[in-house]
């Protein structure tokens, strides 16, 4: 029972963590809290859902489950397509909305407000296209395997956990070891100065959107595979994402991931002890606590 | 003809309850620059507290205290004001978008509470039988509608006069000074945190009052009335009308509520019944796209902010404006 909380928490937490990395990157480099990030998660999931369904129409062999998982090759292929489409969507929103506002040197809070408007527009569009009915990648049922110590997990769950670890490690290495990562960190420190030393700030902004959207899409596919796909899924994740990004310290990728796991574990504990209907309050309580006690977050620097 | 009048009165009364929320948001955002994404939560507090105070005693939940309606209104405003005060006390010192995130969280938490605290709020089924003003005239829709409209016109009118006085008072000037140039205001010895907190709480109390008024006008409340869509509509109203301008807040509420009603009519006329829930999502897309378009194309809204000076200065606002622009240019 108690060991199962660990598994449930880690799985929920890895989805929150992947989303929170995108939030923390846009926050530290573009300098605003992006309320539309949750809806990138939903759009990523629906892109993958649509692509997977189309692939399934093209060839039924693609939808036959790959043992021991519940999905066929159409889902991994669709995820690749969805990552590209979600990144394109993020770049489109930036080109139409945030880019012009930045060019006009609008106040931070105007960008936040615009992201709030974009969030509801994107979500309602999804609701119009796909209706509010939940959708699923697959109808297959999976039996959880025993992991010892009373813990159980389905193969799908274990796969998504492993995927999260690989993705986060890759993003961390990219930020710390590559030239792109160095320019991103430089822009996050000081955009004017990094422009002066020859860093192309615009391409860094594009990379941030692409990276954030790609991670959001992966998180969306994971949530869609393990839970369900709904237009509201991104909105429901938004508060945990913000809580994790602030708890981890704005700008810190490992911080966002660890804090995501903390939020996920705390939610799992609350679901077991208080009841599932109060799950959403956990992220709020963590958020309030961190804002009172340590606003710079666990791994952040004081402003 | 009478139907049309009753509908017109209903439409305007609803628009004016939104105008009240909008006036509250204008104190927070328009005058002070505080970004509140939890409007729906504070409106919900006003509605639920007022409903709790005024409904007749109910067997399946706490209260119904059966108090008069105006006690409910005052209680709703007070409770929402206190709630905003506490939220502000935690977050107002922090970066401006932390306030946005925190208020968003508050709205989620309040929605969760009204949904789950069934012994207090009736849970997902909400609270019914909220006493409506002039309920004795309800048999005649046009009289009932007209009397309720008069009440809302009075509320919005009095609030407008009060807020216009407030923004022109020394207190209002300090607020704008802090919004425009905080270090300068601090250097003059103004306690920026305290002023912001006061403005935030006053705005919250007005939202609570609006929530109470809305609850009593409709007579029924449920958690689904207080979704982020409400917050979003109110923001669109303020931005369209012109933030920083109280008349703009009222005008924006009527314009956007009108757009909302017209688009709802179009949806029900154009789409077949089984597609209507889906098509209703297009209404939100429309409002969202127009909010973004206004931010891009005409950030000051229809009316925009007018520069205000103390009436004791005697100078006309147009003469003052160039001087402040010059100061801004020097600082930049």
For the report, how would you describe the main beta sheet of chain B? Answer: none
User: What percentage of the residues of chain B does DSSP assign to strands (E)?
Assistant: under 5%
Low-confidence sequence ranges of chain B: 315-332
How large, in whole angstroms, is the Cα Rg of chain A?
19 Å
Distance between the termini of chain B: 59 Å
Count of DSSP E strands of chain B?
0
Report the largest inter-chain contact: A-B, 43 and 43 residues
Number of strands of chain A: 2
Helix-residue proportion of chain B: over 70%
Mean pLDDT of chain B: 84
Major beta-sheet overview of chain A:
2 strands, antiparallel
Q: Quote the average pLDDT of chain A.
A: 89
DSSP helix count of chain A? 11
SSE order of chain B: HHHHHHHHHHHHH
* Helix count, DSSP H or I runs of 4 or more residues of chain B: 13
Name the overall outline of chain A. Answer: globular
Structure keywords:
heterodimer, A: 303 residues, mainly alpha, two-stranded antiparallel sheet, 11 helices, globular, B: 332 residues, 73% helix
Furnish the topology, listing elements before pairings.
The complex is a heterodimer of chains A (303) and B (332).
Chain A lengths: L1 H29 L6 H22 L15 H30 L4 H23 L14 E4 L2 E3 L1 H23 L1 H11 L1 H6 L4 H26 L6 H16 L4 H21 L5 H15 L10
Antiparallel strand pairs in A: 1-2
Helix pairs in contact in A: 1-5, 1-8, 1-9, 1-10, 2-3, 2-4, 2-8, 2-9, 3-4, 3-8, 5-6, 5-8, 6-8, 9-10, 9-11, 10-11
Chain B lengths: L1 H29 L8 H16 L14 H23 L4 H21 L1 H4 L19 H28 L1 H11 L1 H6 L4 H27 L9 H14 L4 H25 L5 H22 L19 H15 L1
Helix pairs in contact in B: 1-6, 1-9, 1-10, 1-11, 2-3, 2-4, 2-9, 3-9, 7-9, 10-11, 10-12, 11-12
What does this structure look like?
- The complex is a heterodimer of chains A (303) and B (332).
- In chain A, helix 2 packs antiparallel against helix 3.
- The mean pLDDT of chain A is 89.
- Chain A has helices at residues 2-30, 37-58, 74-103, 108-130, 155-177, 179-189, 191-196, 201-226, 233-248, 253-273, 279-293, and strands spanning 145-148, 151-153.
- Chain A has a domain at 25-231.
- Chain A has eleven helices and two strands.
- Chain A is an all-alpha fold.
- Chain B is mainly α and 332 residues long.
- Chain B contains 13 helices and no strands.
- The longest helix of chain B has 29 residues, at 2-30.
- Chain B has a domain at 2-224.
């Amino acid at each position: 029972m108690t060991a199962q909380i660990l598994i449930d928490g880690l799985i929920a937490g890895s989805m929150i963590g992947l989303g929170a990395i995108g939030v923390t990157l846009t926050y530290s480099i573009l300098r605003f809290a992006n309320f539309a990030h949750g809806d990138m998660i939903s759009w990523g999931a629906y892109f993958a859902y649509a692509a997977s369904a189309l692939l399934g129409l093209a060839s039924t062999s693609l939808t036959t489950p790959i043992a021991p998982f519940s999905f066929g090759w159409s889902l991994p292929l669709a995820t690749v397509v969805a990552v590209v489409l979600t990144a394109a969507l993020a770049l489109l929103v930036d080109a139409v909305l945030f880019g012009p506002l930045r060019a006009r040197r609008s106040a931070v809070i105007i960008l936040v407000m615009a992201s709030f408007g974009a969030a509801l527009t994107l979500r309602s569009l999804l609701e119009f296209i796909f209706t509010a009915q939940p959708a699923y990648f697959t109808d297959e049922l999976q039996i959880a395997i025993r992991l010892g110590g009373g813990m159980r997990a389905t193969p799908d769950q274990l796969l998504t956990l492993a995927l999260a670890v690989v993705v986060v490690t890759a993003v961390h290495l990219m930020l710390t070891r590559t030239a792109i990562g160095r320019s991103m960190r430089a822009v996050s420190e000081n955009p004017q100065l990094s422009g002066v030393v020859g860093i192309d700030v615009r391409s860094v902004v594009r990379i941030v959107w692409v990276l954030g959207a790609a991670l959001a899409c992966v998180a969306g596919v994971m949530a869609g595979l393990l839970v369900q796909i709904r237009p509201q899924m991104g909105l429901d994740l938004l508060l945990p994402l913000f809580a994790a990004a602030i708890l981890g310290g704005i700008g810190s990728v490992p911080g966002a991931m660890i804090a995501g796991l903390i939020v996920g574990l705390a939610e799992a504990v609350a679901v077991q002890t208080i009841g599932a209907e109060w799950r959403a309050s956990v992220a709020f309580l963590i958020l309030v606590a961190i804002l009172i006690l340590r606003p710079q977050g666990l791994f952040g620097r004081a402003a | 003809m009478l139907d049309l009048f009753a509908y017109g009165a209903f439409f305007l009364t609803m628009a004016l309850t939104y105008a009240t929320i909008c006036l509250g948001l204008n104190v927070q955002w328009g005058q002070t620059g505080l970004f509140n994404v939890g409007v729906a939560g504070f409106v919900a507090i006003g509605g639920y507290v007022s409903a709790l105070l005024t409904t007749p005693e109910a067997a399946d939940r706490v209260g119904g205290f059966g108090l008069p309606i105006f006690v409910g209104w005052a209680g709703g405003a007070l409770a929402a004001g206190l709630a905003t005060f506490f939220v502000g006390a935690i977050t107002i010192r922090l970066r401006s978008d932390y306030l946005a995130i925190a208020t968003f969280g508050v709205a989620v938490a309040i929605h969760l509470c009204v949904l789950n605290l069934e012994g207090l709020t009736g849970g997902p089924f909400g609270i019914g039988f909220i006493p409506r003003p002039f309920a004795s005239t309800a048999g005649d829709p046009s009289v009932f509608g007209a009397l309720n409209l008069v009440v809302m016109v009075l509320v919005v009118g009095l609030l407008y006069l009060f807020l216009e006085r407030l923004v022109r008072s020394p207190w209002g000037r300090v607020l704008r000074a802090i919004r425009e140039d905080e270090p300068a205001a601090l250097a003059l010895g103004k306690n920026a945190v305290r002023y912001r907190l006061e403005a935030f709480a006053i705005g919250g109390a007005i939202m609570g009052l609006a929530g109470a008024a809305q609850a009593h006008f409709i007579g029924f409340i449920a958690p689904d009335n207080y979704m982020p869509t409400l917050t979003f509509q109110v923001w669109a109203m303020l931005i369209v009308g012109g933030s920083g301008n109280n008349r703009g807040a009222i005008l924006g509420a009527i314009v956007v509520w009108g757009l909302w009603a017209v688009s709802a009519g179009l949806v029900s006329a154009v789409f077949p019944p089984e597609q209507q829930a889906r098509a209703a999502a297009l209404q939100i897309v429309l409002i969202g796209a127009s909010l973004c378009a206004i931010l891009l194309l005409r950030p000051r809204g229809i009316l925009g902010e007018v520069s205000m000076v103390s009436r004791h200065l005697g100078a006309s606002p147009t003469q003052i404006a160039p001087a402040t622009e010059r100061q801004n240019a020097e600082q930049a």
